[in-house]
Amino acid sequence: MATLLDFRRRIRSVKNTQQITRAMKFVAAARLRKAQESALAARPYALELARMLRSIMSRIDEPEHPLLAKREEKNVLVIVLSGERGLAGAFNSNILRKANDFIRSQGGKKITAIPVGKKGRDALKKAGYAFAAEYVNVLAKVEFSVARDISALVSELYTKGEIDAVYIAFSEFKSVMSANLVVEKLLPVEEVRDEDIKKQDPDGAERQQGEKEDETPIDYIYEQPAEQLLGKLLPRYIETQVLRSMLESSAAEYAARMVAMDSATKNAGDVIEALTLHMNKVRQAAITKEIIEIVSGANYGA
């Protein structure tokens, strides 16, 4: 049977763990604020770039560009954005399950992966997938240079014909309590539809629904030929999609970690309360036993 000293040690250990989880919650909350601001700030740029790209493609009868070339999808590349560390609830397991479900849906196609994040790299390496590249320790502070390197790599592989399609799997930030698991097609770049534009602006879904259906799209005025602009905007469009996905995934990870650490802190408090109650019962029982022994001894002596 556990002694009072054992209970005190366990309570002290749980309190130390509670202090750690509380500190991690505050750190995640501070980083979430910055990551959320960056993710929200990237959405308007991606939205307008998608609209401009649709406008340019609509002005060309038959757009031609290596990133627009469509072919049978035999070799598929999947970019998987996961977390760098654990202690984020089901964040990593959810996105990896989503990516695995998508990969299994591809049937007998050859799959190549680009993991972004340690957890995804370790899981995909254990599963035996071939890597075109890997990026770790890049989501804590998302930088455009990393997104540019990833987009340049996949664009080069696609242009050379080594891969036939590129998909990106990530967690899209919706709120602190929830995230939207997404698998989007990155290459080949297809005609930008209204649904694709709305994806760039999730917060404006209600506003989009309230707009009139017959509202005419924005008519841009260009100085350069449409074909020349298309060649410049397509690589930038890929870079923007990769950067937006990284920012969304980073914000979703910090939100999941903050919620997980808050839950862990509350659970530690419940454990401390239960242990304290049990310890007091054991101590009271010991005191009662000693009193009974003293009274019994006194009565025996009398």
Structure explained in plain terms:
By secondary structure, the chain is of the alpha/beta class. The protein is 61% helix and 11% strand. It contains seven helices and five strands; from the N terminus they run αβαβαβαββααα. It has a five-stranded mixed beta sheet. The two termini are 34 Å apart. Mean pLDDT is 83; it is low at 205-215.
Element order: H for helix, E for strand? HEHEHEHEEHHH
Strand content: 5-15%
Return Rg in Å.
28 Å
Give the helix level as a range of percent.
55-70%
The number of helices is 7
First CA to last CA: what distance? 34 Å
**Gross morphology:** elongated
Strand order of the largest sheet: 3-2-1-4-5
Going by helix content, strand content and strand pairing, the class is alpha/beta
Give a quick rundown of the structure.
By secondary structure, the chain is of the alpha/beta class. The chain is built from seven helices and five strands; from the N terminus they run αβαβαβαββααα.
Key features of this structure:
alpha/beta; 11% strand; 302 residues; 7 helices
Secondary-structure blueprint:
Blueprint lengths: L3 H55 L16 E7 L9 H15 L4 E7 L1 H10 L2 E2 L12 H16 L5 E9 L5 E9 L6 H6 L5 H6 L15 H76 L1
Parallel strand pairs: 1-2, 1-4, 2-3
Antiparallel strand pairs: 4-5
Helix pairs in contact: 1-7, 4-7
